[in-house]
Write a structure and sequence with these properties.
heterodimer, A: mainly alpha, about 0% strand, globular, B: about 290 residues, mainly alpha, two-stranded antiparallel ribbon
Chain lengths: ~350, ~290
């Protein structure tokens, strides 16, 4: 991070570290589309107070997808069991509120810590093997947790879920209200802070080295990037994020259903990320918005069978090609494209070269 | 005790018949097909509909399920799957999960969410004593059919011309193509055979595994375990893995129902960490 902190790196100097530092600083600058996105999210608190519950759901799903993006988009690990960390966070937050302390921020941190611990331990399991073995390992861990939660009914409430705990006011100040407004603001703040931290992480030298590991592990090792420890670190961070998301779900709904560990959660979040695009963090957020709206819409048309349409969307995405979906804008006429790029990538500060 | 062992073997045989098709797509074509269970489910539902609505005999239903799923398999392979052979694993996972979701919802729409029951012919229900062991007749039937299939598959793979073409295509597709083997047709036929076997397994398993719309999701991990634990380079690897899994699952659910499934997942994860390419992987294979 020290390299980014240096504000004096002259653009004209040609040393490789200056080029890298400049590049990182440029990537780290806030883009217009990001600012607009957050402003809209804040404005929605006042504009759509009746939809606060849906908005909370989007914020939580977005955080979960950002977490998966760290694993998939930056470390290149295909995981089918990311729901494990989400579910663990949800249960830990519920149990913590029930047995120890009802204040949500503490519960959130504890849930993130426990999930992160599981992420750290299991990260060593995804270092080896092919995509398939990793897929099976992550899936196996998620299934083990689901089975545990189901069997340890004395602790988790088993198939009935965990209920009967109250979540106290946030920091002792803000009570959760019936319409979910506090819940939405709370989730949004957590999502914002987490995304902000994630931006710092991926736009640091550490983030660059992750991209190198994802591109080619052997070559990354050749230029001195310790691939294994990089993956362990990012996997742990992602697990913490997923734990946060799970805890948010528990705290905003005051209930933990065993459904939090179900397979479809891990599959859904993959779809969310793919809808929004992998590997630039905001894919998770945009995907969460699209996914939740789609699901809402589908379940209005066909209440029981929305799964079919979600499946169809997945198949179509793969058939059309994921890369074509994320670069939809390249099919627009050239002048509109240029204008869009200029608007979206606009950022304050000195201009260096052309728009990226 | 021995009855449990026998039930486990029958269960394992059934898992093998369904999963062997997956071993082919996964191992031979390097395609992660999570939708394999959907083929088995479709085979099961075909049997249920034919038997309960049209009164077709159970013995006739089995080959029909096989053929129907083989045709469906070949159509899907030609239209959808083959485009993804060279796609990334993430794409394959997304695509097949999408197929699973669609099949689950479609079956729920057409057939309802309840468990489907079939009425076995009288000579297959009940138990018989063999050497003093109580053996379910239907399980005996499954064991015999599956044993015959295993031998037939092994012979087909090692002794026939098609078998050697397939092995050549798998070992090195480009060289095989250079030798004049029509790799794409070989793969399509193999895919069809695999789907057909899944359909057959689903039809036979309707009684034992249970049949409801969540079948592909419930058993997906079992089929994957068979393939990943057994390795994909031989027929015997997945076969032994399936038997082990079947026995362990039945015994686990009987003796320690509280932790039964947990142990299986735990063993799978440990196994994958120690032997990422499967217990019975051939050294130096691709």
């Amino acid at each position: 991070m020290t390299v980014i902190g240096e504000t004096t790196a002259a653009v004209s100097s040609t040393g490789p570290e200056h080029v890298a530092a400049t590049q990182l600083r440029r990537r780290n600058a806030w883009r217009a589309y990001e600012i607009v996105l957050w402003l809209v999210a804040i404005a929605l608190i006042f504009m759509l107070p009746s939809k606060a519950l849906l908005l909370t759901e989007i914020a939580i799903l977005a955080l979960f997808a950002v977490s998966l993006d760290l694993v998939l988009g930056y470390a290149g690990i295909v995981s089918l069991g990311h729901g494990a960390f989400f579910g663990l966070g949800a249960y830990v937050a519920g149990l913590f509120a029930m047995h120890f302390f009802p204040e949500p921020v503490t519960g959130l941190l504890v849930a993130g810590l426990v999930s992160g611990l599981l992420g750290f331990v299991t990260s060593f399991l995804v270092l080896r093997g092919s995509d398939l073995t990793r897929l099976m390992t992550t899936l196996g861990i998620a299934l083990m947790l689901a089975e545990l939660a189901n069997q340890m009914a004395w602790l988790t409430g088993g198939a009935d879920g965990l209920s009967g705990f109250t979540v106290g006011p946030i920091l002792g100040l803000f009570e959760f209200d019936l319409w979910g407004r506090t819940g939405y603001i709370y989730s949004l703040v957590v999502l914002f802070l987490a995304t902000w931290a994630a931006r710092r992480i991926v736009n640091s030298p550490f983030g660059l080295s992750l991209k190198a590991v994802q591109g080619n592990r052997v070559r990354a090792a050749m230029v001195g990037v310790p691939a294994k420890s990089r993956i362990v670190v990012i996997y742990t961070i992602a697990a913490v994020y997923a734990g946060f998301a799970g805890a948010l779900l528990t705290q905003t709904t005051s209930f933990v259903s065993p459904d939090v560990l179900a397979f479809h959660r891990s599959a859904d979040v993959l779809l969310v990320l793919v809808l929004g695009g992998v590997g630039y963090l905001y894919g998770g957020i945009i995907g969460a918005i699209i996914f939740t709206l789609l699901r809402d819409w589908f379940s209005v048309i066909t209440p029981q069978y929305w799964m079919f349409w979600i499946g169809l969307v997945l198949v179509i995405i793969v058939m059309v090609g994921r890369e074509n979906i994320t670069r939809w804008h390249t099919f627009l006429p050239a002048p509109i494209q240029r204008a869009l790029a200029r608007a979206a990538n606009w950022r304050p500060g000195p201009k260096i070269g052309g728009g990226q | 005790m021995l009855t449990i062992l026998f039930d486990g073997i029958a269960y394992g045989m059934l898992l093998f018949i369904i999963a062997v098709g997956l071993a082919i797509t996964l191992g031979l074509m390097n395609f992660i097909n999570l939708a394999h269970g959907a083929f088995a489910m479709a085979g099961g539902y075909i049997t249920v509909v034919l038997m309960n609505r049209y009164g077709v005999s159970f013995y006739l239903c089995l080959p029909i399920a096989f053929l129907a799923m083989a045709v469906v398999g070949v159509v899907l392979e030609r239209t959808l799957y083959r485009r993804l052979y060279s796609a990334s694993h993430l794409d394959q996972v997304l695509f097949s999960v999408g197929l699973v979701f669609m099949s689950v919802a479609a079956v729920q729409y057409f057939m309802g969410g309840q468990q489907q029951l079939i009425h076995l012919p009288p000579e297959l229900s009940g138990r018989t004593e063999i050497f003093g062991i109580g053996v379910g007749r239907y399980r005996l039937f499954i064991t015999i059919v599956c044993a015959v299939l295993v031998v037939a598959l092994q012979l087909a793979l090692t002794k026939t011309r098609f078998g050697s073409q397939l092995r050549a295509a798998v070992d090195d597709g480009r060289v095989a193509r250079g030798l004049g083997i029509n790799v794409s047709t070989v793969f399509a036929l193999t895919f069809a055979a695999g789907s057909g076997l899944a359909g057959l397994g689903g039809a036979m398993g309707a009684e034992i595994l249970g049949l409801d719309p969540n079948f592909p999701l419930k058993f997906m991990v079992y089929f994957l375990i068979v393939v990943t634990v057994g390795g994909t380079s031989t027929i015997t690897g997945p076969f032994l893995a399936a038997l082990l899994l079947g026995i362990a699952d039945v015994a686990g659910k009987y003796y320690v129902p509280e932790i039964g499934a947990f142990v299986i997942y735990a063993v799978m994860v440990i196994m994958l960490v120690l032997r990422p390419h499967g217990l019975f992987a051939r050294e130096g294979g691709r």
